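Changelog-adjacent note: as of this version, every example in the card shows the full chain rather than a window. The one below runs 105 residues end to end.
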Amino acid sequence: MRVPRLVGLMAVDAREVAQARGVLLAAPDRPDFSRTVVDHVVRQYPPPGAEIPRGAVVTVWFDPGEGGGGSGVREPRLPDPPRGGMRRELITPEEPRVMSPLGGG
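Full-length structure tokens:
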């Protein structure tokens, strides 16, 4: 059988999918995994589509959430950068110009 894709699913949904597909789940970062509900799976091993025997264990890891520390899935912060890429800063007359040591501009 093939390993189902569990990444992105909430814990409760990952357990349901695993049970329906005949695989067991292990979550080393969650000792209370059986009670975990809304945390999202961010990584799994073996990867989706890998061939495993029925009843094999698939290990999943979860997003640590707010204040969890460490690295993990990060959402982009708002506001987004301005459109159009980088723009050249114009020197206004009030700002002093820095002279190059080579005598140029």
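Structural remarks: The chain has a mean pLDDT of 80.
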